[in-house]
Amino acid sequence: MIIDRIEPIALRLPRPGGDSLCLMLARVTTRDGLQGYGECLSLRPPMQRALFATIRDAIVPHYLGKSVDDREALNLAARKRFASFGRAGTVLNALAAVDIALWDIAGKAAKQSVSAMLGGARRTRLAVMASLDKYDDVTRTRKRVEEALASGVAAVKVHEHRLEVAEESRRVIPAAMPYVVDCNNAHTLAEVRRDEKRWAALDLMFFEDPLWPPEDLLGLPAMPGITIGMGADFGSAEQMAVYAKTPAIGVLQPDVCMLGGLSEAKRALAMLAAARKTPAPHTPFVGPAALASLHMLAVTEGEGYFATVEADDSMDPYGIGLTRWKASLEVPTGPGLGFDPDPGFLHRYDYAKE
After folding, report:
1. Angle at the Cα of 331 (from 67 to 177), degrees rounded to 5?
2. Strands of the sheet with 20-30, listed across from one edge
3. According to the model, what pLDDT value does residue 16 have?
4. Within 10 Å of residue 39's Cβ, how many Cβ atoms?
5. Are 97 and 123 in contact (CB under 8 A)?
6. In 3D, which of 114, 88, 107, 126 has the Cα closest to residue 260?
7. Are 337 and 38 in contact (CB under 8 A)?
8. Phi-psi region for residue 181, left (φ > 0), alpha (ψ -120 to 50) or beta?
9. What is d(CA 74, CA 93) in angstroms, rounded to the nearest whole number?
């Protein structure tokens, strides 16, 4: 199966309130007509424009005329070729869109799901964690948490760095329900140490990205009552392995896009299993990367959660409820990623064609 054409697809999905959610996809077509879809993490217009150009001008020439069967070797070769531009970030993110699409094609050709190609699914459904936007307001955050709970989700994640906001949310979340607070690297180690007992009292499933700089976690002993999770921004299994050695970090979060695709995510999951660290794949997606993440979660040993971002059914490219808060999601079982985006959806929201 020889790669004949690679098309970056920039989508702008309208959201309530007037802003847009930016998706950056890639469609790969082989000479014999098979197609696969991939995605990289975009979210905002400036990043979307950068990723579109990177796929078109840097990644596409590396792949055209090559075999889909060589996808893992091609991924490694691209990482080496562009290493001078960094071993994490925009280039590897763009690489992910093409790499995921190649796994999609390979699965379709073999009539196997991606999870089967990754070693076999251990579960058929995955619990949903409501992943809230950042509100930075006690009342608004609590109200949104209550709405998430009313939808029947199995867990809740807030993106709030202020401890009082996280504490107020905990008051309405059942004690037995998994709860994650993502601080987006807002605190210093000294600040976390100062409030250590209050953070521990939240009884978090894990405390995500608490520190800046994150290197301050290296060599840090385990913190009583606090399990730290991080790694969504890592670009390689090797980078993740460095942090896997730190006692304070109990959860590592491979992001299929920031890692550069399923080829590297496969390596990262194997490393985490060997290191006996809990994998919690990072899932801020609604497109092909969301499906790829479902397959990653399905093959991990421990029970995982798919963190569903704030969206609605109109923003689901597949029409399968992928963007809806609910108790659980079914793991796709069809060939490749399991579904293709609706062509009408792609045409309707294709920003680049305007």
Report:
1. 135
2. 3-14, 20-30, 35-43
3. 73
4. 31
5. no
6. 88
7. no
8. beta
9. 15
Identify the bridge partners of residue 164 per DSSP, sorted by sequence position. none
The pair of three-digit structure tokens given for residue 339, joined into one six-digit string? 């579904």
Which band of pLDDT confidence, cut at 50, 70 and 90, is reported for residue 353?
low
Whether 179 contacts 202, CB under 8 Å:
yes
Instruction: Give Cβ neighbours of residue 107 (< 8 Å, ≥ 6 apart).
Output: 113, 114, 116, 117, 335, 336, 337
Number of C-beta neighbours around residue 74 at 10 A: 22
Say if residues 125 and 328 touch (Cβ distance below 8 Å): yes
> What is the per-residue pLDDT across 124-150, written as a single tens digit (0 to 9) for each?
999 999 999 999 999 999 999 999 999
The share of the chain scoring above pLDDT 90, in percent, equals 94
**In the structure encoding, which two tokens stand for residue 76, read together?**
């490694």
For helices 288-299 and 262-275, the axis angle rounded to 10 degrees is 30
Contact 144, 173 (CB under 8 A): no
Structure tokens at 165: 């906001």
Tokens of 3: 């790669």
Q: Report d(CA 28, CA 66) in Å as an integer.
A: 12
Peptide bond into 213 cis (omega under 30): yes
Report the C-alpha gap between 42 and 10 in whole angstroms.
Answer: 9
Q: Which residue has the tokens 């979307």?
A: 48
Whole-structure pTM value: 0.96
Q: How many helices (H) and strands (E) does the chain have?
A: 13, 12
Which of 63, 59, 60, 61 shows the shortest CA–CA distance to 71?
A: 63
Closest CA to 158 of 176, 134, 128, 126: 134
